[in-house]
Amino acid sequence: MEAQRFEQRLLENLERDRQNRPCMQTADWVKFVFQGMLGVGHNIRSLEDAEKRLREEIKAVQPDAGEALVEPLSPAWFRVNLRRAKAEGIPAEWIACMMVLSDGTPEWTRDDVFRVCRQIAEVDDNCDRQLLDRILDPDWLPGHSEAYHAVCRPAYRVLSSAWKLPLQALCSIAHGYHPGVLITLDGPCASGKTSLAAQLARILDADIVHTDDFVVPHAQKTPERLAVPGGNCDWERLVGEVLAPWKAGKRTEIRVYDCHSDCFRTTGSLFPGRTLILEGSYANLPAIRRLADTCLFLNVPFAERWRRLEARESPDALKGFRERWIPLENAYFQAYNLPDAVCTVLAENEE
Known about the structure:
Blueprint: H1 3-20, H2 26-38, H3 47-60, E1 70-72, E2 77-81, H4 82-88, H5 92-102, H6 110-121, H7 129-133, H8 146-152, E3 156-160, H9 164-174, E4 182-186, H10 193-204, E5 207-210, H11 223-227, H12 235-247, E6 252-258, E7 263-270, E8 276-279, H13 286-289, E9 294-299, H14 302-312, H15 315-335, E10 344-347
Parallel strand pairs: 4-8, 4-9, 5-8, 9-10
Antiparallel strand pairs: 1-2, 2-3, 6-7
């Protein structure tokens, strides 16, 4: 995103926050800009330290399901509300892990923060201009004002915007979570299922199985089979060889089907007691859903999905998606009324 648009969004979010929280003083909006541009890195010593501090803070706050979970700072960063996170049952270690994975070299500098804050100060008659000069001190970190602490009781952590969608999913997963659950992640092609599954797996230390590895072999692709919604997925083998034995506490071998060579190959094992994420189209077929503990459905507008397909696929492949794969997926969604009330729908948003 170009710098001008980034700063515009940052200032829009700040103005909305100042209207909602009239107690904000110079220190508070400087901290907002600082975090919105530089992010979280300055606040992390180690994963262990981040977890320890988070556990102590979450233990001290009262859960509040009425507060917003996410407070946008900028296109790159947001605050996650710890009171709401506690109400959702999101563990400290998950948030700490997202913090560490959010860390990195920021695109902006203290000079940029100072420049933006100077722009704000030009139209703020109550600005503490002496405080602005401290922004350029490399050892100085912003803090909230006493008035803000008294009224707003800030309790949050700053995360990269890359974790907004996974955070939505974790809210659903957290209820009744224990290692060893099965999470299904479904949705249309190019909605980002594989990427989201990888993010969730890092937080949950989970294994991943892809439905793309369980396509019906060529010999079984009869017109009758493909006429059944979801019939392109070899759900019988997926359930019989993998999911049902794994749910029964047995170690299972993963055999993937390679449609190009028309053969099977063993790629690894699944061990009971570890969380498992099944991602891909047809992950919420009825026979699979009966085994799932949490069902997720990733919903992304068609225009964005098609843009992604155009960026990664050849013209011949695009034709295949348009004429075959997308119609098959749509028939599956329609036949089983997906997403339904059992699914948690995850949706990307601009903020």
